[in-house]
Amino acid sequence: MNDDADAFDADGRLDGLSPADLVAMLGAIEERLADAPLAALSEDGLLALLGAREEARRKGAAVDAALYVEISDRGAYTRAGYNTMHQLYTGALRLGDGESRRRRVAAASIGRFTEMTGERREPAFPCTAAAVSEGAIGEAHVVVIDEVMDRIPRAVDLAARDKAEELLAGAARTLPPSALMTVGNRILAHLDPDGTLADDKERQRQRKFRLSPQDRQMMSAIQARLAPQLRAEFEVMFTLWAAPGMNNPDDPDSPFGSADQPGLDPAVLAAAAERDDRLLGQRQHDALLAMLQWVNAQAAHARPKSLRNQVVVSVTDEDLARQAGVAWTTTGTRMPVSDLVKTAADCVPWLAVFSTATGQVLYLGRAHRLASRAQRLALFARDRGCTAPGCTRPFSQCEVHHAPEWQDGGTTDIDQMGGACGKHNRAHGKNPGDWESTVLTDGPDKGRMAWRPVGADGPWIVNPLFHPDKIRTGLDVPEAERTPPPVLNHRLGHTDPPDSRTSGDVDAATESGVERLLRQHLAA
Question: Is-contact 409 56, C-beta < 8 A?
């Protein structure tokens, strides 16, 4: 690191320092701030410090966007063994999906991407970019502005869109994100008061139906924006399947199916409706469940050998016996065993005990490339989902992955296969930027598939997301067996265990250089 006085110009500003030097200084400043005597400040001083720190934090969003753009434009994420920026941010930086998406939205909104001609284009939202650079607004404001701008119909002319972005950026300087959304809704109402500018293409562009991850109670929220046709279909279905008395899981005498089905006794339905004390939202929830059970049952009969159209559940015999605990489905859903018992009540269950006592063929050698149904069931019971590190794709969205690859002599045997989603199955290869995999033969994760970037000499990495009960915190592992957590090696472009320099032992000369730069800058 450059640690001489020449790093500053006559005005005391930083000059001649690399981005890495500047980031090192930021880290040293944060350490100094953590130990700063905040108790010595007055109340006014504390409030002023809070405002200044938030302004500095918001300015950092512009740097984050520029870094995102540079890595994306140059495809540098492939050097670390990832196929997309989202994988890099969630895998290497361990950010959540939501935070990774916010970084992407911010970069797309205020970043200056490179044109095919090599020139830098202006930010998509120039007024927003200027406000972020000044520290006046943050990433949360940018996300709201992007959402509002995305909802403006395409028929609105460019001048009106630019004016809307200018108004939103100006309002964001004085309002929190929640209030900014209110302003955005008013702008949208002004631009299209009658809703006549939203044509079929616009509605199709905005359509979505997305299940959010399960919370601690195993409940899931839904993010939806329904096109008129789907809403109409929902309304017809709810009218018949969510009628009072129909499909009530708490009433054993409640009729199943549609209220207009042939043969349904009106007196039975009337009696069930009299007993029904569910709210409208609960009746519609139960109607949707009944409808999907019926649809999935028809699909299972049509394609009996597929696991993707059937509810297949992995559960221990102990939990099943006491009707307690949590089971896993092939789609990645956690289901209370008590609900599993209800689901299986009207089904012909599959009971698979994967041991030497079964008659199932789990070893096919080179006779067949495609895995059998029994092998897929066994892999689901073992893997539950994609085995690639950090991947959240459930087993229903996975392919059977050979390790080694089939073309390299791999066999279709249970101890040489694992679940892998299509993206990670295609990411397997022998070139830099690809991943390699193996089934571990020893250690605490014996029998599980592990991955690492091609050329890496670090440890094999397993995916712990589908086996939270097997995550080892390090406290229960003997010190001699502990493996340092993998970190991104930016020089080699792969994942390596940290050395002493990256695990906290900072070189004394570098530390003193940082401190000297700080003192020189503060003195200036």
Answer: no
Per-residue pLDDT tens over the stretch 156-172:
889 999 999 999 999 99
- Sort 360 into a burial class: Cβ within 10 Å, 0-12 / 13-18 / 19+: middle
Neighbours of 171 (CB within 10 A): 20
Helix/strand/coil for 408: helix
Short-list 476, 467, 471, CA closest to 326: 467
Q: How far apart are CA 289 and CA 283, in angstroms?
A: 10
Torsion of CA 479, 480, 482, 487, to 10 degrees: 110
CB 124 within 8 A of CB 109: yes
Q: Spell out a b/e string for 221-252, using b for 16 or more CB atoms within 10 Å of the CB, else e.
A: eeeeeeeeeeeeebeebbeebbbbbbbbeebe
How does strand 222-225 pair with strand 208-211? antiparallel
Q: Which residues contact 375 (CB under 8 A, 6 or more apart)?
A: 362, 364, 400, 412, 414, 417
Q: Phi, psi (5° rounding) for residue 31?
A: -65, -40
Which of 4, 1, 2 is CA-nearest to residue 520? Answer: 4
Per-residue pLDDT, 356: 35
Beta bridge partners of 304: none
How far apart CA 241 and CA 254 sit, in angstroms, is 12
DSSP string, 156-172: S-HHHHHHHHHHHHHHH
For residue range 323-340, list pLDDT tens digits in order. Answer: 556 666 666 677 776 666
Which residues, in sequence order, are CB contacts of 307 under 8 Å at separation 6+?
Answer: 330, 373, 376, 377, 380, 395, 396
Q: What is the pTM of this model?
A: 0.54
Selection from 87, 76, 103 nearest residue 391 by Cα: 87
CA angle 350–354–357, rounded 5-degree value: 105
Q: Are 197 and 203 in contact (CB under 8 A)?
A: no
Q: How far is it, in rounded angstroms, from Cα 266 to Cα 383? A: 48
502 exposure class (CB count in 10 Å sphere: 0-12, 13-18, 19+): middle
**Among 104, 198, 99, which residue's Cα sits nearest to residue 151?**
198
Q: Which three-class secondary structure state does DSSP give residue 489? A: strand
Token pair of 221 as six digits: 């929220």
**Alpha-carbon span 445 to 449, nearest angstrom:** 9
Check if the beta carbon of residue 130 is closer than 8 Å to that of residue 169. Answer: yes
Contact of 184 with 168, CB cutoff 8 Å: yes
pLDDT of residue 83: 81
Both tokens of 473, joined, read 């915190």
Identify the pLDDT of residue 489: 34
CA distances from 197 to 147, 157, 167, 286 (A): 18, 11, 21, 37
Q: Cβ(314)–Cβ(335) under 8 Å?
A: no
Q: 520: which 2 tokens?
A: 């020189």
Q: How far is CA 4 from CA 1, 13, 516, 518, 520, in A?
A: 9, 14, 8, 11, 9
